[in-house]
Amino acid sequence: MQQAGYSLTLNQAGRLVFRVAGSNQVAAVESPAPLNDGRWHHVIAEADRAQPLLVLYVNGRKAAAAHGLDATISLANEGDLYVGGTPEGRFFDGEIDFLRIALGTLADAHTSIEELCAWQFDGPFLRDFAGRKPAGKRRDAGAIEQIEHSPP
């Protein structure tokens, strides 16, 4: 974020803050509980520019929502996208397991937070087409897990 843009940070209290800014306007939403507790968390920050609404989802549930900026307000800027830290020294002290930046909302993707979590935590990538979990260190190439049978 520069004068315009977006950011997702943890504040001094350990709460997640999603902020968007443009044309001298700022909107933000903050998680009600701190997330710097040493445990793993699944987080989605969503800016619905049509509503306008900012939403934070934490661990598969809507944690907070606030009024956002509508689509007439440009968030464009010349800044770089930083993940996990900045050259000025701000950094995230933890691990990021998966990151996705999407151009739309969950509704735009015709899904819900419940469906997304079900796919991410119990989805088809965990099993082959027959429902079998991978055997060994890696998943076999293809859609069916190879099973070795002992000769009779």
Short descriptors:
mainly beta; 6 strands; single chain; 152 residues; three-stranded antiparallel β-sheet; elongated
Structurally, how many domains make up the residues? 1
Oligomer: single chain
Structural class: mainly beta
The tally of beta strands, per DSSP, is: 6
Could you characterize the architecture of this molecule?
With 152 residues, this protein is mainly beta. It has one domain (5-125). The protein has one helix at 113-122, and strands spanning 5-10, 16-22, 25-30, 43-48, 53-58, 61-67. The strands form two sheets. It has a three-stranded antiparallel beta sheet, with no helix packed on it. The chain is elongated, with a radius of gyration of 20 Å. The model has no long low-confidence stretch (mean pLDDT 87).
How would you summarize what this structure contains?
The chain is mostly beta strands.
Write the layout of secondary structure elements.
Blueprint (H helix, E strand, L loop, with lengths): L4 E6 L5 E7 L2 E6 L12 E6 L4 E6 L2 E7 L45 H10 L30
Antiparallel strand pairs: 1-2, 2-3, 4-5, 5-6
